[in-house]
Design a protein that fits this description.
Radius of gyration: 16 Å
Largest sheet: 5 strands, mixed
Strand order of the largest sheet: 8-7-2-1-11
Organism: Actinoallomurus bryophytorum
Number of domains: 1
Oligomer: single chain
InterPro entries: Lamin_tail_dom, Lamin_tail_dom_sf
Shape: globular
Keywords: Signal
Signal peptide: 1-21
Protein name: Lamin tail-like protein
Distance between the termini: 6 Å
Number of helices: 4
CATH architecture: Sandwich
CATH topology: Immunoglobulin-like
């Protein structure tokens, strides 16, 4: 669940209005959210790119307009950061952010790493705008079943 959604849900009345007013409109109204994380794909952890690419984060644009993600980041708690280049996600669509190497498409992008990013036992993914505002987070504290819906 995203940070904005958690904070607003826990506040009432004018306090909630203050929090919302303090956040940039793009962050408070972002339609792009974390959807799923596959942090421990089945099989043995190896240096094979085909296995590393099976670890990924999925974003979903739940809105009705295309969103430009240039400069947005997906990061973990240990300073692994993936920064989107010139990339847009269309309304109602998903993008898969694979840990390994590959050629970016309109639905799949690659961090080009040689080893895994997401910890199997516990970790947290943060999605931030190009201004650095956190728009969503997703975390887990177990290693089964190897994925989490956000």
């Amino acid at each position: 669940m995203g940070m904005t959604r958690t904070v607003v849900a826990g506040l009432a009345g004018a306090a909630a209005l203050t929090v919302m007013a303090a956040e940039p409109a793009s962050a408070a109204s972002s339609t792009v959210k974390l959807y799923k994380v596959v942090y421990d794909p089945s099989g043995t952890d190896t240096h094979a790119n085909s296995q590393i690419d099976r670890e990924y984060v999925v974003l979903k644009n739940g809105g009705k307009k295309t969103v430009k993600l240039a400069g947005w980041t997906v990061r973990d708690t240990k300073k692994h950061v993936y920064t989107f280049g010139s990339f847009s996600i269309k309304a109602g669509k998903y993008v898969y952010i694979h840990t390994g190497r590959g050629t970016d498409t309109s639905t799949n992008v690659y961090q080009n790493r040689g080893w895994y990013v997401w910890n199997n036992t516990a970790d947290k993914v943060s999605l931030r705008t190009s201004a650095g505002t956190t728009v969503d987070t997703c975390q887990w504290k177990h290693n089964s079943p190897g994925h989490v819906s956000c």
